[in-house]
């Protein structure tokens, strides 16, 4: 367990409070397709999910981000505390391939007051995610 002294307000804030790089954190984004299928996309904390790549992987015509109120209703977790470990079976999880390069990752504990560090292989065994390249290309200034 990696406790925070104050509720985390962002990936960077959580990383700072945990004394780690945001690169080893899993950032999550809940998406829905037009048929109602749900996908939890997970990428390293210093990256961004590209919903178009998630949509292409699952052969969806369109996906949208689930709004904050619905995230709570569907998962029981508020945005920023969503963990890939405890999800309804109706949600399909997908990780970016780059996660495989990380020996350990930190994920939300379900609370904005703590994170959990786990071996990446253990998270993968538990979550059984799909893998694809789902990050946005980050532009350099």
From TrEMBL:
<dbReference type="InterPro" id="IPR036754">
    <property type="entry name" value="YbaK/aa-tRNA-synt-asso_dom_sf"/>
</dbReference>
<feature type="domain" description="YbaK/aminoacyl-tRNA synthetase-associated">
    <location>
        <begin position="7"/>
        <end position="126"/>
    </location>
</feature>
<dbReference type="Pfam" id="PF04073">
    <property type="entry name" value="tRNA_edit"/>
</dbReference>
<protein>
    <recommendedName>
        <fullName>YbaK/aminoacyl-tRNA synthetase-associated domain-containing protein</fullName>
    </recommendedName>
</protein>
<dbReference type="GO" id="GO:0002161">
    <property type="term" value="F:aminoacyl-tRNA deacylase activity"/>
</dbReference>
<dbReference type="InterPro" id="IPR007214">
    <property type="entry name" value="YbaK/aa-tRNA-synth-assoc-dom"/>
</dbReference>
